[in-house]
Design goal:
The chain is of the alpha/beta class. Helix content is 30%, strand content 23%. It folds into 3 domains: 59 residues, Beta Barrel (OB fold (Dihydrolipoamide Acetyltransferase, E2P)); 147 residues, Rossmann fold; 65 residues, Orthogonal Bundle (Ribonucleotide Reductase Protein R1, domain 1). The structure holds guanosine-5'-diphosphate, magnesium ion and zinc ion. The site of guanosine-5'-diphosphate has 18 residues, from helix 5 and helix 6. The site of magnesium ion (MG) has 5 residues, from helix 5.
């Protein structure tokens, strides 16, 4: 029988199938092969009449996200708040890179628009819109702007990410009242202990599969195997400027006559985005340094 993993807890997988949910263990040989099924995986199971079973095979994955480990994601919904806490564009830019690397559609949500607004934030939202990313400005507590977001998520496998306190769980509860996720003070009190799993639970709602990411904080680039030389491809606004670079292999960091740096100085490329580029470039470069060089001094 074919099904989809929606939850992993202490080695037990919940697999949704046309015949209902099955509580499954993974086949023993997966471990030897270094494979582990994760939520979002389409799997073939050996199903028993008592609705337990064994995962026999993982069907090919369309994509894979690391920490939280989840497969076959359609949309990565990255939530920031316009205030409390203030947005951190660097983490937004990292998320956009992960999404593009895995062929996942990114959606940027700015929550808490009921709070006094800051011009800088609407500029930030507009900047991402100009780069042709989908941006939604919403208020989970007032229920504003949610209808359009709900339409965009219909029938999709969606992972919600974003820093603690931005309102992810509140947003999900407002979008899907049946979820009843813990929010605010409640989840603070429970502490991190409950969320030490590296996995995510996907909740079936309105035809969609929705995953909250409690306890993960920011998404990290580690493990995605992005090369520093490929990084410019992840910044769509660089494309038209690169022609003006003197060097074909320009890294856009310190070379003279660089079209990207010229565009930044003329305000055609956002200084914040360029700063993210430089930081991520350095990070990727360090990871590429041969082991011997790294430890020689
Ligand atoms: N003013 C305002 N506060 C919100 C909104 N959404 C969530 N909050 C508050 O922000 C805090 C964190 O919300 P929560 O959903 O737990 O955030 P999470 O950590 O991202 O899941 C809670 O105190 C919520 O009441 C909103 O739209 N407006
Ligand atoms: Mg939460
Ligand atoms: Zn350049």
């Amino acid at each position: 029988m074919i099904g989809k993993i929606i939850k992993l807890l202490s080695g037990v997988y919940t697999v949704e199938t046309p015949e209902g949910a099955y509580q499954c263990r993974a086949k023993g040989s997966f471990r030897k092969q270094g494979i582990s099924p994760v939520p979002g995986d389409e799997v073939e199971i050996l199903a028993l009449p008592d609705h337990t079973g064994r995962i026999e095979k993982i069907l090919p994955r369309r994509n894979y996200m690391i920490r939280p480990n989840v497969a076959n994601v359609d949309i990565l919904c990255y939530v920031s708040a316009i205030a409390q806490p203030t947005p951190f564009p660097f983490t937004i830019d990292k998320m956009l890179i992960i999404a593009k690397n895995q062929g996942i559609t990114p959606i940027l949500v700015f929550n808490k628009i009921d709070l006094p607004d800051d011009e800088k934030i609407s500029d930030l939202a507009d900047m991402y819109r100009r780069l042709r990313y989908s941006v939604y400005c919403v208020s989970a507590s007032k229920g504003e702007g949610l209808d359009e977001l709900c339409v965009a998520l219909k029938d999709k496998t969606v992972v919600f990410a974003g820093n603690t306190g931005v309102g992810k769980s509140s947003l999900l509860n407002t979008l899907y009242p049946s979820l009843k996720l813990e929010t605010g003070e409640v989840s603070q009190k429970l502490g991190r202990g409950r969320h030490t799993t590296r996995h995510i639970e996907l909740y079936p709602v309105n035809g969609a599969l929705i995953g909250d990411t409690p306890g993960f904080g920011a998404l990290e680039l580690e493990g995605y195997e992005i090369k520093s030389t490929e990084l410019p491809d992840y910044f769509p606004e660089f494309e038209s400027c690169i022609e003006e670079c003197t060097f074909l292999d320009c890294s856009h960091i310190s070379e003279r006559d660089c079209g990207v740096r010229k565009a930044v100085s003329e305000g055609r490329i956002s200084a914040g985005r360029y700063e993210s580029y430089c930081q991520i470039y350095q990070y990727l470069k360090e990871g590429e340094t041969p082991w011997s060089k790294k430890t020689s001094n």
